[in-house]
Design goal:
Blueprint lengths: L1 H9 L6 H24 L1 H6 L3 H8 L3 H23 L6 H19 L1 H8 L5
Helix pairs in contact: 1-6, 2-5, 2-6, 2-7, 5-6
Length: 123
């Protein structure tokens, strides 16, 4: 993700920083919601044996549903930006915005993986 973002800045005019900031905040918020969902359902996540089961556990709580909804909304926002974005609808901005969202989301959700590993419950 960091390599994609760096490539976006090194090619062409670079992405719009305001758009990247919006996607970074949205990604951080989605990651925090995902973190909460992971911490609230430790045993269910540990017993999940497939990606479908993990997804089902994630969306079984409100923070998990909201996190998934933000992911879909960010994708929709990128499509709208591509269609109606005018001068901001560059490949650098689209890829950079998605990379920024993903990096912020994963960074905010990462600490919950230690909770899953240890099996401890924290809210």
């Amino acid at each position: 993700m960091a390599a994609a973002l760096l490539a976006c800045f090194l090619t062409g005019n670079g992405p719009s920083l305001a758009i990247l900031a919006v996607f970074m905040v949205a990604g951080a918020f989605a990651g925090l919601l995902q973190n909460i969902a992971l911490r609230r359902n430790v045993s269910q996540f540990q017993s999940a044996s497939s990606a479908f089961q993990v997804r089902a556990v994630l969306v079984s709580s409100f923070p998990g549903k909201a996190s998934v909804a933000l992911l879909w909304l960010s994708g929709l926002a990128l499509i709208l930006l591509l269609v109606n974005g005018g001068q901001h609808a560059t490949i650098q901005t689209i890829v950079g915005a998605y990379a920024t969202f993903s990096f912020a989301r994963e960074t905010a959700a990462f600490p919950a993986l230690f909770v899953l590993q240890s099996g401890q419950f924290h809210v």
